[in-house]
Amino acid sequence: MADLSLHRLNEFAELDADEISRFHAIPSEEFTIAHNRIIRREGDPVDCVYLLTRGWVISCVGAARGRRQIVKIHLPGDMMGAPSVVLSEAAETLESVGVCTYRRIDLADFGRLILEAPRIGARLFLSTQQERVILMDRIAAIGAASADRRLAALLLHLYDRLCLLDPAQTPVLHIPLTQVILGEATGLTSIHVNRTLRKLQADGLIAGTTRAIELRDIPGLRKLSGIQKRQWRRADWLFGAPADGTA
Amino acid sequence: MADLSLHRLNEFAELDADEISRFHAIPSEEFTIAHNRIIRREGDPVDCVYLLTRGWVISCVGAARGRRQIVKIHLPGDMMGAPSVVLSEAAETLESVGVCTYRRIDLADFGRLILEAPRIGARLFLSTQQERVILMDRIAAIGAASADRRLAALLLHLYDRLCLLDPAQTPVLHIPLTQVILGEATGLTSIHVNRTLRKLQADGLIAGTTRAIELRDIPGLRKLSGIQKRQWRRADWLFGAPADGTA
DNA sequence: CGCTGTGTTGACAGGTCTCAATATAAGTGG
DNA sequence: CCACTTATATTGAGACCTGTCAACACAGCG
Fold this sequence. Notes:
Two copies of one chain form a homodimer. By secondary structure, chain A is of the alpha+beta class. The first copy, chain A, has helices at 17-24, 107-116, 118-142, 147-165, 179-186, 190-202, 218-225, 236-239, and strands at 28-33, 38-40, 48-62, 68-74, 79-80, 93-106, 172-174, 206-209, 212-215. In chain A, the strands form two sheets. In chain A, strands 1, 2, 3, 4, 5 and 6 form a six-stranded antiparallel beta sheet that branches. In chain A, strands 7-9-8 form a three-stranded antiparallel beta sheet. In chain A, helix 2 crosses helix 3. The longest helix of chain A is centred in the middle third of the chain and has 25 residues, at 118-142. Chains A and B meet through strand 4, helix 2, helix 3 and helix 8 of A and strand 4, helix 2 and helix 3 of B. The structure holds a DNA duplex.
């Protein structure tokens, strides 16, 4: 299995050997935690960022009426907690969904990396813009959309990201998310998530169970969601086109 | 009046004289456009970013059923179109609200700036993380929130940003936004925006007209919105603390 | 074995959208 | 300056969607 922790950094331009070793030279402590554990709570002081290496983590901000809003579902390779580096109190609560492993990177080490390795810093900049596009798409999928559109968009979003992680990904999503979590991510109650999933099922768009949702009609889901698939492009304008046929 | 175009770059660490001149050395053509003009449309090729110097610009992504979703309301000093640098087709439509002036920065020049001036690149990285926090807050304000919460959050968001631009900002928001635009930003119909604004007015939370909304009870609005005010912190962990009292 | 978390279904209330009509304001051309 | 057109704001009635409350089935786990 390829090293998933470099996956995102390689997305817009391949790291060279020097950059890889530079990245691995960052001091980072590894943690493995169980299901439903808090990595960092909203309001906690911000003195590090995290790199998820195994498992799933959700990132939530406290919304009104005690209902929390999931703003990001993290997969292996994702940097976590990065938005809060501009704050003294963390904006998001990071919580494990199932067993997961992550690395903690001290803010000082992270800062040194950005300033002393500008080409890595530039990749982090691009990844952050990518996250912005994803958040923009999620707002569009939630803003004025009905429950079926919201869920269709979320499922496709997860599917597209799993495909980037594993090219052999099938349309069957093995996800550890409950209907409560799907509700917190879409701004719906878990009850209505249930009803809507069954409606999508009746319409032949999906099949299977919540933990193994099969996307039966991906074009239909995409049309329903109203969100097109994003084509991330390599950043030749930044790093220059690869001289030879390098990936 | 201070140069608003450097406002955002100075937010996390003051630029030194060398960095300022470096920034001004970027080739950029200036444009002034009228009300309701498209700067760049969703789907257009991405070969530049923009810097807004005067006026207001909205950034929309096409949502379902022809209803568009506003994902960002740009104020002077904002970089525009940056999320799309990771795409070949622009994700957002940039449209002027009233007369406005902006600069066009070619992607190649932008890339050179990032790689050759890492300390400016680092500031862009921080600004992008800041935009992520803002988008996360907007998702939280829209996801599972009622109309009054959505509008309260949007008004406070605009107020907080106007305060950063002008420390003399009063609680009276002189904004060029119509109720249709407020609806597109909150995921509500303009009709319901109208009803909700009048309800907020009846509750004594706001007063005045749509173009000059007075926030009469800011703590009350903040409590209603459920979104706390963000305290952006200077990035001493990145640039080091200022040696002397350099503001 | 009981317990907790999760999924499922029904009835009802409340919020928001839609359609429709009108008033007001803003801009345009004579 | 006025008449005209357009954009924006406002209000009402009804339909639809989603939330709330309640109850129950089921699985995993101590």
